[in-house]
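Please decode residue identities from the backbone states below.
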């Protein structure tokens, strides 16, 4: 893999405007790949990306405590609760009170949910988390630092970082 040059090391023939255009183009490619994957999930199983991911988490951990789901999905409880209600309304999951603690609720797939989860295109988490896992620590660190500067330049709300990409 070729070494990435720092802007100060770039040949003089590469202008800042050219770099900006290339980075913008790269963001478009990334966003298009993410959108295409979530559209593929929706076409295959009729669920949004967050619901499909939630369904797959429940399939991997039958009887999971509903309070553990936000940590599993690295998102806010309100987002998980909304997705969970949608899955329950469609008859894809069942939620039962714990026998030992009435304040604890466990969720598992219904028969219909088990059938549907097997049809979810992989990866159910989305393509970006899988791609990030494939990067080496140095590349990931450089990407994190660059994106942090971009977020600052955008004056973006950091709380939106907890919203799954499929929900944006």
């Amino acid at each position: 893999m070729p070494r990435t040059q720092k802007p100060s090391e770039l040949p003089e023939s590469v202008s800042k405007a050219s770099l900006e255009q290339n980075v913008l183009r790269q963001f478009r490619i990334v966003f298009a790949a993410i959108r295409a994957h979530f559209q593929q999930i929706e076409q295959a199983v009729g669920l949004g990306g967050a619901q499909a991911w939630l369904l797959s988490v429940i399939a991997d951990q039958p009887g999971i405590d509903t309070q553990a789901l936000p940590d599993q999905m690295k998102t806010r409880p309100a987002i998980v609760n909304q997705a969970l209600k949608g899955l329950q309304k469609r008859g894809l999951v069942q939620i039962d009170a714990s026998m030992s603690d009435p304040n604890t609720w466990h969720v598992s797939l219904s028969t219909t949910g088990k059938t549907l989860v097997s049809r979810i295109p992989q990866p159910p988490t989305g393509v970006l988390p899988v791609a990030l896992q494939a990067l080496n620590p140095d590349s990931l660190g450089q990407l994190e630092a660059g994106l942090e500067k971009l977020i600052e330049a955008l004056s973006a709300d950091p709380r939106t970082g907890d919203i799954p990409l499929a929900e944006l």
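Observation: The chain has a mean pLDDT of 89.
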